[in-house]
Amino acid sequence: MKKKFKILAITFFILNYFIGNVFVTAIISVLLFFSCISFLINNILVLSLNYPNFYSIFSQYNLDSFIILGIYILGFILPISFVILSPSNTLRFDAEILHKFNVYFIRSCFWAVIFVGLTDFFISFMRVERILPILLNDYFVRALGRSAFVGLYIHVPLILLGFVVALYTRTLGFTWLALIIVAGELLIVISRFVFSYEQSFMGDLVRYWYAALFLFASAYTLYQNGHVRVDVFYASMSTKARGAVNAFGSILLGASTCIVIILIGFDGKQSIINSPIMNFEITQTGTVGMFIKYQMAAFLGIFGISMLIQFISYFFESIADYRNEVGHRDHQTSVIS
């Protein structure tokens, strides 16, 4: 019994030191962020140039392995250098930087799904109703019937356009996305019961935007503390105690879950995220549906990445609350825009 108490006391001592030491907290948290970036760069090289995975670099002694090893070493050095060279940054400042980056990332994804959804919807409509042969020659008619062509030459430029547009806008657009989902459902109802017309691509568009709405908005909802929380004990805690609970939960429960999603989802060419993206996978409805199923697999990866970034930001903010630093946000007065 005494041994168990000793182990428990040592554990609490280590955790208390961890959340009480700003320097250690900043290094480990930023290191987690940069490690995620290194892994994603490694994943891109695996898919595009057949580079080895991170767990294969020590079993293959060649130039490719050393390049991947260098990427991870760089991902280890950069966060430490960042923390050392910016000692005046407060935890709330670092949290706000990560949050702003995440907001831009999510906003870009929002614009991307708007552009891709509307464009692919009209292409699908013209393909099903055989309007394409009237407007285009045989080469482009056949090309627009292949998901690889549509994904590479239409979807990718539209996604890049979304990231450009996001630089000049400030709204996250979740309210607008919810509105156009309702409009899409209304269109299906009217076309089905008034005009007796319904096609697979109509339902595909609504499911596509639904998935984007719930997976993209999760990180911002975390920032606003809008997720469901059981407040049996939490509501009566002090700000410092809440900061400690949120800090442990952010890393032990939140960030760990996101890491598992990222590691499993992007683990090689046959993983549950990489495989659909590489093959531009579409639904069983074929050419009568939208060519966006592969992107819905990518949404899971976007969810994991955005939530990981937000959990790290939330962790910084929670540590600041634990240390009673100025600038505490009252979540009860926050409103999702």
Task: Describe the structure concisely.
The protein is mainly alpha-helical. It is built from twelve helices and no strands.
General description of the model:
There is one protein chain. This protein is mainly α. The chain has helices at residues 2-20, 22-49, 63-85, 91-128, 132-135, 138-143, 147-165, 174-193, 200-223, 239-265, 274-279, 293-322. Helix content is 72%, strand content 0%. α4 runs antiparallel to α9 (200-223) and α9 runs parallel beside α12 (293-322). Mean pLDDT is 82; it is low at 333-337. It starts with a helix and ends in a 15-residue tail after the last helix.
Defining traits:
single chain, 337 residues, mainly alpha, 2 domains, 12 helices, disordered C terminus
